[in-house]
TrEMBL record:
It comes from Saccharopolyspora phatthalungensis. It holds the Pfam family ArsC. This is Arsenate reductase. Its EC number is 1.20.4.1. Keywords: Oxidoreductase. InterPro entries: Arsenate_reductase, Arsenate_reductase-like, Thioredoxin-like_sf. The keyword Oxidoreductase applies. Belongs to the ArsC family.
Amino acid sequence: MEIWVNPACSKCRSAVSLLDEAGVDYTVRRYLEEPPTAAELAEVLDRLGLEPWDIARLTEPVSQELGLKTWVREPVSRAEWIEALVANPELIQRPIITADDGTTVVARTPEAVRSVLP
């Protein structure tokens, strides 16, 4: 199991605490320090069943600088969105957990975290 976290994020700290309480083995990826590649992010999005605009943090200052709210949200723009998120990982919603069986969730709630526990 892997969890993408920003240690400054309370939702991330809560998710890590729930994983610890459950006693599961997991790897922490500080995705701001070790951003995903475009291929990794595309794979995570496929597992989530979401598009990059679905996990973009549109209130971040860099989002406003890029004008993300006005970007086209169609399959033709998917690669451009992915590249923007990879180049600016603070735009990626967090935490994201990928379980050993491949199940992946944006774990912003305790229920979402529990949904990937064995």
